[in-house]
């Protein structure tokens, strides 16, 4: 059991590369079906923690036959949604609204600097192209950029934010599917890990009652936050190394499990490690 009580346990998981089955791992599909039974038998709350925008998350649920979560943290931590839907019905984009207390909290963080006002201020920086409307949010401003220009553009945006003291930060990345440069502006300090911590405090759920599963660099903060962590086998060695080092430095001897299996199967392997009653 490793000290985790089922009654208060939460599986908080990334989607792409973690919960969603990989196309070259046929065992993932079988383990995804078994995972749905595991969640019910162990009475686990399920929380999705993803960088995807909400419509993309909702589309992924039927596409990959994912179990229905109770909560969704998406838009890189700027949207928190409570899922209220019958288990035999999938939620639809129009049926879900961002959790108002969290929206109010983010509004306090940015003050008068709305994303609309921030967008106007960034018009002076050429080379940024706004992403599609569904990829924007009330506290997330997202752009495309040429991959080769990304470092210089990121530096210019960061300089503007710093000089003017704007309450936002930049997350820059490369889309692995089409090699587009991506520039996201989020309230300063906000991330997937930040939103999960805010939610857990609101729900009065202790850190060690949360099992967090992830695979990539944008899961690092959550993997190093003190939760009982699961790193799936397809994670980069650099990510595994950083998380192992952090846990060792903190003296956490029982909060990290590095799976031998990839993606969905690795998540389930981690659940078996922490919750011994789950069967093979």
Explain what this protein looks like in three dimensions.
The chain has 280 residues and is an alpha/beta fold. The protein has two domains: 182 residues, 3-Layer(aba) Sandwich (Rossmann fold); 77 residues, Hypothetical Protein Ta0175, Chain: A, domain 2. It is 38% helix and 18% strand. It has a seven-stranded mixed beta sheet, with helices on both faces. The protein has a four-stranded antiparallel beta sheet with strand order 5-6-8-7. Helix 2 runs parallel beside helix 10. The two termini are 15 Å apart. The relative contact order is 0.18. The mean pLDDT is 91.
List keywords for this structure.
280 residues; Hypothetical Protein Ta0175, Chain: A, domain 2; 2 domains; four-stranded antiparallel beta sheet; 18% strand
What's the arrangement of secondary structure elements?
Layout: E1 10-13, H1 15-19, H2 27-41, E2 45-49, H3 54-64, E3 71-74, E4 79-82, H4 100-110, H5 115-121, E5 129-130, E6 141-145, H6 150-164, E7 168-174, E8 181-187, H7 192-203, E9 210-214, H8 220-223, E10 228-231, H9 237-250, E11 256-258, H10 263-274
Parallel strand pairs: 1-2, 1-9, 2-3, 9-10, 10-11
Antiparallel strand pairs: 3-4, 5-6, 6-8, 7-8
Helix pairs in contact: 2-10
């Amino acid at each position: 059991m490793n000290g985790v009580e089922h009654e208060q346990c939460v599986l908080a998981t990334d989607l792409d590369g973690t919960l969603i089955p990989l196309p070259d791992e046929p065992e993932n599909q079988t383990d995804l079906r078994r995972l749905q039974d595991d969640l019910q038998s162990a009475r686990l709350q399920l929380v999705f923690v993803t960088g995807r925008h909400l419509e993309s998350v909702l589309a992924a649920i039927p596409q990959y036959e994912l179990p229905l979560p109770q909560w969704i943290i998406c838009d890189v931590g700027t949207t928190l949604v409570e899922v209220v839907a019958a288990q035999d019905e999938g939620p639809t984009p129009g049926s879900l609204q961002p959790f108002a207390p969290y929206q109010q909290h983010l509004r306090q963080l940015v003050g008068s600097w709305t994303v609309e006002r921030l967008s106007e201020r960034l018009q002076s920086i050429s080379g940024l192209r706004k992403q599609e409307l569904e990829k924007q949010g009330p506290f997330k401003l997202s752009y495309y950029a040429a991959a080769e220009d990304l470092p210089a553009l990121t530096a210019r945006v960061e300089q503007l934010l710093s000089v003017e003291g704007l309450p936002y930060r930049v997350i820059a990345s490369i889309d692995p599917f089409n090699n587009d440069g991506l520039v996201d502006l989020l309230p300063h300090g906000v991330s997937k890990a930040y939103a999960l911590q805010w939610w857990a405090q609101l729900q009065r759920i202790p850190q060690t009652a949360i099992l967090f599963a992830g695979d990539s660099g944008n899961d690092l903060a959550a993997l190093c936050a003190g939760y009982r962590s699961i790193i799936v086998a397809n994670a980069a060695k650099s990510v595994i190394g950083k998380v192992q080092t952090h846990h060792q430095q903190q003296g956490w001897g029982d909060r990290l499990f590095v799976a031998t299996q990839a993606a969905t199967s690795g998540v389930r392997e981690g659940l078996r490690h922490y919750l011994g009653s789950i069967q093979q």
